[in-house]
TrEMBL record:
UniProt family annotation: Belongs to the transglycosylase Slt family.
Keyword annotations from UniProtKB, A to Z: Signal
Protein name, UniProt field: Transglycosylase SLT domain-containing protein
Organism: Aequorivita vitellina
InterPro entries found in the cross-reference section: Lysozyme-like_dom_sf, Transglycosylase_SLT_dom_1
Record keyword DNA-binding present: no
Signal sequence region: 1-23
Glycosyltransferase in keyword set: no
Length: 306
């Protein structure tokens, strides 16, 4: 850290003194505090979109309860500003990876917002154990053929997890007849949605009375879609350089056991931490691979890390 010169110190003292005097002069009173709150911080009601759709399926915004449920999620996600900015930053990194995978596996592009709703585009695990960007439970992942053990958890492999999400959602769409119900079943489960359909004799998500979480779920996805497609409309301002970017990688095949990943990565000029950032599905510092299964390891291209 550079030391301040005499002039610099004097300027700092002068500025601090001025701030201190200003603070004393503006000390809160009942009268001016109320005025400052009104003038310095404002919260606005949000105009609802005139039309909305999910995966090409219209949202019945002419119905009062539908408007109120969408309004709630728009307000919650607009005024949680720090989280909103992080979502924009991460989306710039992950949407270019997710979008072609959705197309490849036959899902409408809007399902990228389901991934946002599930995990905030982070490789996280929920309190009940749903993991990865798509937040699968272990049982669901195993049912759809993912490898999940102490050394490998493919729920954290973006391509394989997207493939499983697509299989699940497409089956749900076949069962329920539309993508909106498929999205709701991702939260409540096919069995949970079937139960309410049979109890209420209704087949449309917007006509069903559901538990609080599932009732809000599709509307959260809709709100995220609306906000992330129109950032300035909802007060989010950022530059391209503020956003996160994906780092290009090379793919390396591994079909043997690995005794120590931290040693294995040394020839590539990275450490274990960087290996894990790009391969979050690796769950330990070594790999038991007695069967000789082939894994694809992603190594960042040279020049991105010291």
């Amino acid at each position: 850290m550079k030391m301040l010169g005499k002039i610099g110190v004097g300027v700092v003292i002068l500025v601090v003194s001025a701030v201190s005097i200003h603070a004393v002069q503006d000390a809160p009173t009942d009268a001016n505090l109320e005025k400052k709150v009104v003038n310095d911080y404002n919260v606005y009601a949000l105009p609802l979109p005139e039309k909305m759709d999910f995966a090409g399926e219209p949202v019945p915004l002419d119905e009062p309860d539908i408007r109120e449920r969408l309004d709630r999620e728009l307000l919650v996600n607009t005024y949680w500003q720090s989280n909103g900015l992080l979502l924009f930053k991460r989306a710039n990194k992950y949407f270019p990876l997710i979008e072609p995978l959705l197309e490849k596996y036959g899902l409408p592009d809007d399902f990228k917002y389901l991934a946002v709703a599930e995990s905030g585009l982070e490789y996280t695990s929920s309190p009940v154990g749903a993991s990865g960007i798509w937040h699968f439970m272990k049982g669901t992942g195993l049912e759809y053929g993912l490898e999940i053990n102490d050394y490998v958890d493919e729920r954290y492999n973006l391509e394989k997890a997207t493939m499983v999400a697509a299989e699940y959602l497409k089956k749900s769409k076949e069962r329920f007849g539309n993508w909106t119900m498929a999205a709701a079943s991702y939260n409540a489960g096919v069995g949970g949605m079937n139960k309410q359909i049979n109890r209420q004799n209704q087949t449309d998500y917007y006509d069903l009375l559901l538990n609080s979480e599932t009732s809000r779920y599709v509307f959260r996805i809709l709100a995220l879609k609306e906000i992330m497609e129109h950032p300035q409309k909802y007060g989010f301002n950022f530059r391209e350089k503020d956003l996160y970017t994906n780092i290009p990688t090379i793919k390396v095949k591994v079909d043997t056991p690995v005794e120590d990943w931290s040693e294995w990565v040394k020839p590539y000029g990275i450490n274990y931490k960087i290996l894990k950032i790009h391969n979050p599905w690796l769950r330990d510092t070594y790999l038991k691979n007695a069967s000789g299964k082939e894994y694809i390891i992603e190594i960042p291209e040279k020049g991105y890390y010291k």
